[in-house]
Amino acid sequence: MMFGSKKKEEDIDEFNIHVSRYRPEELTKLTKITKFNKKEIQLIYRGFKQECPTGMVDEDSFKHIFSQFFPQGDASQYAQYVFNTIKRNQTGKISFEDFLAILSKVSRGSVQEKLHWIFGLYDLNKDGVITKKEMQDVVHSIYSMLGRHTDPQVDDQSAKDHVDRIFHLIDKNNDGNVTLDELIEWCSRDEGILQSLDTLDTVL
After folding, report:
1. Which residues does UniProt call coiled coil (predicted)?
2. Which of 5, 47, 190, 192 is the 20 to 30 A CA-CA neighbour of 198?
3. Is residue 64 domain-resident?
4. Could you tell me if 45 and 97 lie in one domain?
């Protein structure tokens, strides 16, 4: 009983510290390191605080949040991949600042910034290249997340064939790895992909 009470007190203390952190000067600092204005940051923070009252997000909480947006499928694997692209503290949790920084990059960043993030998403082991297996794993997680809402329905073999075709186009030197430069070069030549990147721009 004492342990539970102590834990609750610690959570409340952490919550109070986090809530009181964002004074006007702090908001000004966040506007300088992101592409959001003060009102947008306050709005995002309210939503973040509602889902994560302690002000920190662990992997399980992140997966839960993702699952609410994609109830028709299984978003857990894709959520894990996205979680791994976000800088975390020593405890393995994401702070509001970390969350805001990645949201700014993905939704408001330049094409180059978005492509850097996409590359980091697919480079699962963070060795600086994307293998065909890594691309297949991420694409499979996307189809699992979308579930029955994919039109037409995509089976595992069709997804694999799609990855094979795309990977061959991007891997210019046919060494079995896709580098960041190869990804940027290929995407920059495809107007459809550039337009898709533009749709990531979020209107809050």
Report:
1. none
2. 47
3. yes
4. yes
- DSSP code per residue over 5-70: HHHHHHHHHHHHHHHTT--HHHHHHHHHHSS--HHHHHHHHHHHHHH-TTSEE-HHHHHHHHHHH-
CATH of the domain at 182: 1.10.238.10
Range of the domain at 176: 127-203
Q: Which residue has the tokens 């992101």?
A: 34
pLDDT for 64-93, tens place per residue? 888 888 888 899 999 999 999 987 767 789
Question: Is the model's pTM score more than 0.70?
Answer: yes
Domain's final residue, options 82, 109, 136: 109
Q: In degrees rounded to 5, what are phi and psi of residue 173?
A: -95, 5
How many residues can be counted in the chain? 204
Give 94's strand partners: 57
Name the packing angle between helices 132-146 and 111-122 (round to 10°): 100
**Residue 17, in any domain of the structure:** no
Q: Give rounded-to-5 percent helix, strand, coil for the chain.
A: 65, 5, 30
Residues 190, 134 share a domain: yes
